[in-house]
Fold these 4 entries.
Entry 1:
Amino acid sequence: MFQLFPPHRVAGSNASGTTVLRLGYVPLTDCAPLIVAQRMGFDERHGITLELHRQPSWAAVRDKLLSGELDAAHALYGLVYGVQLGLGGPQADMAVLMTLNRNGQAITLSAPLATALASGRPLREVLAAAPRRPVLAHTFPTGTHAMWLYYWLAAQGIHPLDDVKSVVIPPPQMNDALAAGVLDGFCAGEPWNAIAEAEGVGRTVIASGEIWPDHPEKVLACRRDFVSARPHAARALTMTLLDACCWLDDPAHRAEAAGWLSCPNCIGRARALILPRLLGDSRLPGAPLRFFGDGEVNYPYLSDGLWFLSQYRRWGLLGDLPNLQAIATAINQTTLYREAAAALGINVPDSDHRTSVLIDGVAWDGRAPERYADGFAIRATEHA
């Protein structure tokens, strides 16, 4: 049962004492903690006021974080690490305050491809028989959806950089592109996979929780100078979102939140399309969408960030850097998170690393990211 944590008043968030924080989000089911935090007044309990700003794409989230138009945002884990490294765009020192959710994404293929796959034919054979080189979309070049798509393809002997064409499209545009025949499939967050099925333009072929059970997904992200200049505000913001994530553990609360997410100023699609996968659709194998789990979900594990660095190396985005561990340690604000969790009485893990086994049976624990990346048979032939 949900139990409200003790309030914590923010103090000294900046020189002027302003406590209004501008948060960006992309209209996806897993932006729910931000919507809940504002609707339930959890921000006020911790002495801050949230202004929520819907964004049309992850590129817009990135640009407004960098310009200072947003103080923090619901963001792809990989977006934060990509910006930190200046991969494909401007560089800035970034911070991950907490993980907002695990799982809750999926890969959808066009109806003809999904039907062929359901007949038992291997994916490699299905794609090879397509009348053109398959075009598969994700949401950001260094983002989570690109990495789930690449990993899934490679696990089945398909090179994601050579055997298919990968393109970037904002999630709300994917189903129209699939219906028009511009795309053959996509990897994105919900509810866009559920909407594709409801509209008959595609079918979910795998949930992300099958690719990496309990994978990290969206994070609460900001520039690192925001943390250094306004540490109390950053801590209060983290506590506010922890309250919201905890509230979402109750299925009845998720049912209420689905109505808020369906509003025109958020996702703007029917509640009935959002709710089943928000609750954890039993028809989809794999770990369902999780927001809290007694705090297990939210810790910013260094090993989670290091996994993205390993995949950037695997796919030729990242060459030899002196200390990948140091990069993850600088980005993931484990000390601030532990302070916020302690103030709320939330348990934290003993280690900054966790062990996972992905769909191909390969274990990951964050200890040797370069060796892990170089151990895959399918990878970019040269590092950038």
Entry 2:
Amino acid sequence: MTQREYPVTKSDEQWRASLTPAEYAVLRQAGTERPFVGEYTDTTTEGVYSCRACGAELFTHTEKFSSHCGWPSFYAPSEADNVELREDRSLGMVRVEVLCAQCGSHLGHVFEGEGYPTPTDQRYCINSVSMRLSPR
């Protein structure tokens, strides 16, 4: 992960103990869950999406939209400083990685200019396993 200090910190051993193997692979090793299998891909439940690693608020149902890409999509975080954006040059391409601003866990990536009819023209493509939905 990054060298930055986050408000929520744990040792690698503590992260492994508090997360399932699938959660750890995505949140702490920047993995990606398979498309169309995540529990929140198609949900329209009203509520707040929080980081599964530390519980910090990330998104709400009001920013969620159906992109048909295979992962939950949001056009913005609920508050801009809830997430950290970082350049990602893995896999032979340049992307923008989305991290939890409280613990530095990997959430997914953000893309721009895809033509979705949203207020920001951005798509925060987020792994379901990186979040927990608290229904209203």
Entry 3:
Amino acid sequence: METYSLDILQLFSDDLSFLSKKDELQVQAAIGKIRDELVTRAETWLVQNEQHHIITFSSPAYPDALRQLPSPPLVLFVTGTLSRLQQPPLAIVGSRRATQQGLGIAKSFATELAFSGLNVISGMAAGIDAAAHQGAVAVEGRTIAVVGTGPDLVYPKRHQALHTQIIEQGGAVISEFWPGMPPRAQHFPRRNRIIAAMGIGTLVVEATIKSGTLITAKMAADLGKDVFAVPGNINNPMTQGCHYLIQQGAKLVTCLDDILEEFSHLTESSQQISAASGEKSEDESLATDKLLASVDYDVTAIDIIAERNALPVSDVLAALLEYELRGLVAAVPGGYVKLRGK
């Protein structure tokens, strides 16, 4: 795989003719501000692993979508499969404090999008981001994580295993921040603009009214990208942001086809998608079970489930434990919720 020298004089190719004179001067001025210490760190990071890549603004490997930003990253540090950056991704974003139902929705949509031939891009944050990466990485590593730290750090630290899985399965982790750079509050809006710009569209799964997720969605809309939102319970504050976006013109999404019909030229045929998503396991066939059907997508109390099935609570708990182990339901405060798509 090709990598790029970090000689400060060769950080960018001499050919910047695709830029306006004003932009070229700005790029050159920015290059001049790069400290030698940062260059040394980057050179050290680059040679540590053959999966480490440094992509400059003038490189052919640099994503074209990012060049449209008012202040595009001058350098991208990429860990993993470099070709992921040239394949169309769809962004999935949402709350860090997502419900079990929201996590299930994000993971399910990500898996189905990956089966359709699209990559999934997100920010590797807790909650919806992580669920999206987990859903897509299982399908040929079809995910891109954009991080708000240097490429040599993992944040949050508990996502070390996810970070490793993304790289090992063929995905990519990218950053515009130099090695050694810790997470800082101002880094994450910059990360979000990369997600919004690289995504051919943005799907929002759970968000409060005042959240960074809505800012990302606005960035995508301002760039002329489609914004999709998953509706939910009107009494749940975690879905109020999605409802707001729908009121503002975002497309309401309840199934994969609501997204794919906007990108039919980029995806596999509907027959292939149906075949891939239609391969149900024996566990998933339990979705027609009466007891499972009595569990709602919102929190359902144990005694309500027992009453609906005319069964002792002990029998219900035993059955629910089996369903939980099979990924059909999730235990939450106050009872259980059924995972969407199960």
Entry 4:
Amino acid sequence: MTRGLMTALGLGVAVAALAGLYLSGVLSPGREDRFARCRTDQSAIGGGQIGGPFSLVSETGEAVTDADIIIGPTLIYFGYTFCPDVCPLDNTRNAQAIYLLDERGYDVTPVFISIDPARDTPELLARFTEYMHPRMIGLTGTPEQVAAASRAYRTFFKVQDPDEEYYLIDHSTLSYLVVPGLGFVEYFKRDMTPEEMAERIACFVDSL
């Protein structure tokens, strides 16, 4: 994925988040943003335009919804297990941040939603997530279900050369912090370190 495309996608998410500012309840007229001290980029203020209901299939083969998965602070990433570089690096970073939070007593669930339902079976997702973190949850579904979840979180993905056996997928690379009752509250870019991410997430959780 080109740097220009990643930048454009990040800006698009920021604009969508800001547009939904007052709808989310995180900030409203006469009310301060409860997470203001946790943010380094005010354009990332959470909004009702990002996130929402989804129906997918878990790595155990069960049909699940967002209500089944988001039962506490949750870190969501959209990617695919055949990704040769970005996804393994991003999910390793996310897992390391969760391990740091574990050590501090914070219970945050990492979630990996596959954008490649044709190849990412529940069994394959289970192996991938177990390698990353024992609490990481892998989700897949029908192409329609995956596309709906992607639209809800304003993510982008496009298969390159779909007729090729070992096709690659262009996709956005943000990680989303979601909490029950509020929904999406923050996104994290891929240049953030595990330590920085853990510190930021802890701040958000402390502010709930």
